[in-house]
Amino acid sequence: MSVPIIKNDNFLDAPAWDALSDYFKNTATFKYGWYSAKEVSEFTHWYIDFLNQSSANQDNYEHVLYGNPAYKVIADVWTKLKAFHLLGHSLVRCYAHAHTYGVEGAPHTDSQIDGNFTTIIYVNPEWKSEWAGETVFFNPAGELTQAILPKPNRMITFDGTQLHAVRALARICPALRITLMFKTKAPSAAVSKS
What we know:
Number of strands: 10
Distance between the termini: 19 Å
Number of helices: 3
Oligomer: single chain
Strand order of the largest sheet: 1-8-5-10-4-3-2
Radius of gyration: 16 Å
């Protein structure tokens, strides 16, 4: 059963936001070849995988973030998320994506396990509604139920079993759409279906 989407604008305070923005502007190195839904679409996009864990992982790997000084800014965001609304959650995956015009995602779920959640922080420095690139959500019948613009410093959390996708960026968009994802397992999560 899906739970409501939690949305918080201006999630990070100014120093934390500046540090995260600076990391993705000056330090982060994206690779190409991430599938959002390989079984649905052969197209890929840009990514950084901080934990290098498969989509089936249910073990807590936060120690990888905390143990790597290069990931301090990402670990700081995770610490704030745990204190904000993910208290007791295990960090099972953490990665970033980048999209440009012509690079979009296919409808997919992030997990088949009840109690798994996805949190997205939109890291792009600016966004205009005419640039599109929304995160869209669907009901079980495949109807669009909600669209969220990738507004800078916006945080959303949703049920990992919720069908969603990244919509294509408009041709006029000159920006890189950057998202930082934290995939988590709630303390009450179901046993893996694998």
